[in-house]
């Protein structure tokens, strides 16, 4: 066979090999996201129903995660609480990352006074300790779900802004952006077609990290009694209300803490392996 014929043979396709830890993290995240929507449907009992006269019972076939300090099924309580832990944190993360992305790209492309004013204002906001700011907001406006979402979103907007602005400034200096400007493309086109697509990976990674931070912040507020209020409960509230069973190692206090840990670990594993997913996906194309 001639060299010309050999050159026409396409290279063998490589099999896609997804990162194992990334798949594990993705499975954990998908599971908890599904429970945020379906937890109330698959829970064996109502969240507030007392199902056993004994309190802090160990794990049994009837109650796989034991019972709490009132004799309620902990599996049902955790599944019902997922919508508050995951839902509130996800809404706050979307608010923080979305606001930071929009403001960061505006500052990077407009420059001048726009950049200066936005950067100084958000730097001032980021100088305040996050938990102290949240405590002040909750004390002033009460502890409702909208207030928690707004407070957490405002707290983490400056960090998202700095990441987005840094990425946008770097990309705006690239040759292909200069070429787009030279041929007369407007700012909206450059943001949509040139800058934003090249920011997707880092912005998604930052979104995941910000989600973890907000989960821990909201769980901490709930543990202090300033988060989601009864009769509703998130995982932080479940740890606080069952803290009396810690001395005897009751599952009622350990399982909500393990749920928080599993969610944060799963998100971190997924974030750490995002690059592996994209790289291996490109090789198999």
UniProtKB/TrEMBL annotation:
Stored SUPFAM superfamilies: MetI-like (SSF161098)
Keywords for this protein: Cell membrane, DNA-directed RNA polymerase, Membrane, Transcription, Transmembrane, Transmembrane helix, Transport
A GO biological process held by the record: transmembrane transport
Keyword Magnesium: no
Pfam family, one: BPD_transp_1
Subcellular location(s) of the protein: Cell membrane
Family the UniProt entry places it in: Belongs to the binding-protein-dependent transport system permease family.
Protein name: DNA-directed RNA polymerase subunit alpha
Source organism (scientific name): Teichococcus deserti
High-level lineage: Bacteria, Pseudomonadati, Pseudomonadota, Alphaproteobacteria, Acetobacterales
